[in-house]
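User: Can you fold this complex?
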Amino acid sequence: MTTAKDLLRHEMMPHILCPGCGHGIVMNAMLRVLARRHQNLDKVALVAGIGCSSRIVGYVDANTLHTTHGRALTFATGLKLARPELEVIVVTGDGDGLGIGGNHLIHAARRNVDLTCILFNNETYGMTGGQLAPTTVKQAFTTTSPGGNTEPNFDAAVLAKAAGASFVARGQAYRPDVLEEVMERALDHRGFSFVEVMTDCTEYFGRKNALGLGSDLLFTQSRSDQEVSRDLADWPSLRTPQGWQVRETQPLGVLHEDRRPTFEESRGLPGYSEREV
Ligand code: SF4
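Assistant: Here's the predicted assembly.
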């Protein structure tokens, strides 16, 4: 049986992720799902932009493309149309996919290209220095908001649905079981699938806001699970020393799914049904 470890490029280790970074948990969940679906990743392509989350495709023994900042979905669209038999997965971050590449995200969703986009949301630009991202919550401190963020943040899942994504889900590093389930369903879906994953940047976002260790940050993700948060309502670490709430309450799981013609189907191009050819 194939395991997640079998799908790694061991020659690329050690990885660059900081201690406590949530991305490793998300990557492991993705690899476990892929290991259940494939003996090897010869028919899988991972396409990434720039950032700490995008960097992880380099560690996976699949067909991998590390592209330019914010442009992973454009490369992935071309690849999918040229090689419809491939399962194409875009790995991106909130800065890469929603900030610099936000325009490409809405149009990929609108076109309903048969791709799966996994967006790691850690509320900051990690690799480039901890700048304000379109997902940074109000009042949070970042390198470029030293007085606290004054802008409202995007709800990535709501945005993707409004733009036309035919599958939208949200998971979090704190709940890898839910994450695996939604990733599996996203890969099964025919059309543009968008999975937002709440994860953490300990080095920049966590440190700038005095949020503690990676484990503390991970635990605060439970704030967005309404079931769990009832028990944690008075837990002091849910608020920063400055008093703002670390997590907004957000629903998890599959948030939207419909079946409409994919970009390939509407143009009579080879698509999903020819994957095994
Ligand atoms: S900078 Fe932040 S997002 Fe990047 S590896 Fe370090 S903790 Fe993770």
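The chain has a mean pLDDT of 89. The first strand starts at residue 41 and ends at 48.
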